[in-house]
Amino acid sequence: MLQAAQVPLSELENPAEFAARHLGPDAADEAHMLSAIGAASRRALIEAIVPASIARSQVMRLPAPVTEAQALVELRGIAQQNQVLKSFIGQGYHGTHTPGVILRNILENPAWYTAYTPYQAEISQGRMEALVNFQTMVCDLTGMAIANASMLDEATAAAEAMTLAKRSVRSKSNRIVVAGDCHPQTLEVIHTRAAPLGLQVMLANSATEWDSLLDGGDYFAALVQVPTTDGSLHDLRGDAARIHAAQAAFIVAADLLALTLVVPPGEYGADIVVGNTQRFGVPMANGGPHAAYLACRDEFKRSMPGRLVGVSIDSHGNPAYRLALQTREQHIRREKATSNICTAQVLLAVIASMYAVYHGPEGLKRIAQRVARLTAVLAKGLQQLGVNVGNACGFDAIALHTGDQTEAIAARAEAAGMNLRRFREWGDTMLGINLDETSTRADVQALWAVFAQPGQPLPDAALFDQPIDSLIPPALRRSSAFLTHPVFNRHHSETEMLRYIRSLSDKDLALDRSMIPLGSCTMKLNATSEMIPITWPEFANIHPFAPAAQRAGYALLNDQLCGWLSQATGYAGISLQPNAGSQGEYAGLLAIRGWHASRGEGHRNICLIPESAHGTNPASAQMAGMTVVVVKCDSQGNVDLVDLQAKCEKHSANLSCIMITYPSTYGVFDTQVKALCQMVHDHGGRVYVDGANMNALVGVAAPGEFGGDVSHLNLHKTFCIPHGGGGPGVGPVCVVADLVPFLPAHRASGQAGGTCGAEPPAGHEVGAVSAAPLGNAAVLPISWMYVRMMGSEGLTAATEIAILSANYVAARLAGHYDIHFSGGIAGLQGGGVAHECILDLRKLKDSSGISAEDVAKRLIDYGFHAPTLSFPVAGTLMVEPTESEPLAELDRFCDAMIAIRGEIAQVEAGTWPRDDNPLVNAPHTAAAVSADDWAHAYRRSEAAYPLASLKAGKYWAPVGRVDNVWGDRNLSCSCIPVSDYADD
Ligand SMILES: Cc1ncc(COP(=O)(O)O)c(C=O)c1O
User: Which of 271, 351, 665, 873 is 20 to 30 A from 364 via CA?
Assistant: First the structure.
């Protein structure tokens, strides 16, 4: 052994230390796992599993890894290149104070941010209660009947409202009338989304144009912004009748803080209301993430997009939450789904709902009244200074006619540390000032100083304390109550708030308690050092439309991350704009569509999709105006090349692309993937490789090298952004060189298409797919930290250990369960799988009556979140252990699964009846197990502590099995009336 003094300093510095923190198994564990599988070495295992034909030609060129401390210092240097000015830009993004109790106990708390989408209702009651609060808050403030549990951003919510209207109204028109004073990013995304669907956007650039288009009657929907992008409030009370007379829908994009003081759209006939909740405690963060909302009239509910949380009952008849009306969603209805949304913005919706809980209706009103008062005082002072204040009616913003002084005044403001709104799209002769919760008297005085002529005295500070009325016209003032439910009126002290937040997170099972072995979802470590930078003010307090120079740090972060992801994927160009995997798919398909059109082949619209595909694939294809043709898979889970050949030939003239997932959602490395890509290329189509499974590829194979033309990544899987209970995500879209010009642009913020600056041929621009140019910018530091600390070797090791761990689970469970689609590789216990393995329970259902769902629920009694249930094959469980789980946790999971197999054997043997055993009655609540009556065929201890190890720390499901059907039949999606909780 070396003496301490002989150990080289470079080794003591241990720059690659983080990899060992990220990876669960150590060298000894690895040796044990390999021997259980029967593989000679990790390399030998990978070579047996991953086809040699796709192996990377060279290692990824990434910077050498650094420690957590060094990475934080380096990233701080990047962050400091951002310049945080006071932003009065508005345009849908506002300063806000995140209450400390929410910041620390939700945004910075892994119990909230590492949770998964609440598919398993029984272990998700806490976050679903918070989401029901969100839905109730949105319904109350907008005056609408039903609201969903978040949208990706306001602009995409408006676009989804457009398609919801198209599906729901009687009008057969293909035209939507859109007020020109909506936020520019909303207009741009509406245009992007309308084009492939053949919808025509009729822009109304004045009140006269609006009136004449409405009176013309040829439209299926009309959209307005409240207040308008320049801050005005218009009286819209007469518009609903005109729009309804045309059998069209009235869509209002509304600011929620304004709605605490202004008549809600539901009270003047709106059919759909959208907007965002960013200013409810969520930092601006260069545009995202934050939760948008969509609310609608009751008749539209079965057609609405996005996740919806509803109230149902559990097996004991008690109220319980679960996801409602899932039959609308992409994972069930695929290309007929109401939208492609899968990951949404749950963590941010939770924060916004908690902001409303903490402040309550009176607190929110006080904030809004303060903002409105300061705005009125600001306007009055500016008028005294002789400034031409444009809008007489408004809430929190004023627009000033500044003519040829516009540039000079904006520059003066910037020099004084303030950003004002420019209206370049309207000729650049106005400036806007939007106040918010953070605005103060000092801000108003500083603004006056910017507009005062040299030597001109400033308005008297006494103005602040005069009884100046807000700019909201009396006829438009809200009189109706909102947020009357006790939850919004009882947690206003910090002690109560802290305990309320804790009581909800205690109900849920997140990664901070146990492994979440969800196949296709990659619930790996979200390291604390990766999370820390997201709340740094230099990242959190930047307005997305601040001048580019102030966002230099974000630009650098974007460049570096895109470069690294390009190394990982083998693609030439990447855009980080899409704010979920589904949006990346959509952007990728638009790139393919744009490329075909630019070559005069716009008719190519057939999208081939294997039957194993994730539901977002066909749903995205439909949104991109494509027709889905399903391709069969063979008995090994590979795409059936004979069927593919036939479909390629049949649709050759119209073939747009194929969408495959690699390795497939069956957990299979298709050995023929290169031939598959060639076949599609030979017929003029392009190959979309869904990159959600990049966890099994990084460092080992690159889709851009083996035949893919486009991929999206799920940074919220492979690159460590936490799932947040169902979002935020980031879905970068990656393309080969000739598709770079067709990456999403963002003209509203002056950004051209493509990361390389390549311009698409005239007439073939792909517009913005998200409201903000960098989508969910604020979570990008997480992936940056991960790559920076792991380096090329660490990332490759992560992939290999993910594959090793899945094979270890398969090896341990092979004697107890059928492993579906195993590779049948001789000598490998478990047969060889990719990074996930599918346990087939269908035969057990026949022999015992026990279903995959029963096993999933029984795992809760063992302290685990279930693996993915019945996807991609009904009656199976798909296990993805990831590289981050230690061997001890993998064994704990395997022990649980083996014990459950023993329980199934007892049912098979007739020891326990098919209708009364620990599996069909799972999960067991503490109340059920400790009840005075116990009439079951098994013992209480068998119900609660099936393994002795559980006695050391037991997770109790707060509710029994939730009844989904009851919930959909008796749909209720807002806070449970207190009376429902009364003791019997
Ligand atoms: C294979 C696959 N593709 C696409 C997606 C969609 O990603 P997102 O949920 O971020 O929209 C998922 C998500 O689970 C997936 O597993």
Answer: 271
With respect to residue 431, please indicate whether it lies within any of the assigned structural domains.
Answer: no
What's the 341 CA to ligand 1 centre distance in angstroms? 9
One domain for residues 871 and 936: yes
For residue 811, the domain's CATH number is: 3.90.1150.10
The finding on whether 696 has its CB within 6 A of some atom of ligand 1 is: no
723, 837: one domain:
no
> Are 672 and 813 part of one and the same domain?
no
In a domain, 677, yes or no: yes
**Closest approach atom of ligand 1 to CA 729:** 10
What is the count of structural domains for the chain?
2
Domain that holds residue 818: 793-969
Per-position DSSP letters for 68-105, written without gaps between them: HHHHHHHHHHHHTTB---EEE--TT-------HHHIII
pLDDT digit string (tens) for 386-429? 999 987 799 999 999 999 999 999 999 999 999 999 999 999 99
Q: Which atom of ligand 1 is nearest to the CA of 613?
A: 1
User: Residue 717 Cα, ligand 1 centroid: separation in angstroms?
Assistant: 9
How many Cα atoms occupy the beta-carbon half-sphere of 660 within 13 Å? 32
Model confidence pTM above 0.90: yes
Q: Is residue 761 domain-shared with residue 816, that is, in the same domain?
A: no
Task: Express each pLDDT in 53-104 by its tens digit.
Answer: 999 989 999 999 999 999 999 999 999 999 999 999 999 999 999 999 999 9
Ligand 1 lined by 582 (C-beta under 6 Å): yes
Q: What token pair was written down for 342?
A: 């899968």
The three state secondary structure string of 520-586 is: CCCCCCCCHHHHHHHHCHHHHCCCCCCCHHHEHHHHHHHHHHHHHHHHHHCCCEEECCCCCHHHHHH
Task: Write the CATH number for 671.
Answer: 3.40.640.10
| CA separation, residue 227 to residues 140, 400, 546, 760 (Å) | 18, 16, 21, 35
Number of C-beta neighbours around residue 952 at 10 A: 6
Q: Which of 787, 809, 825 is the last residue of a domain?
A: 787
CB atoms within 10 A of CB 174: 14
The finding on whether 342 has its CB within 6 A of some atom of ligand 1 is yes
Closest approach atom of ligand 1 to CA 716: 10
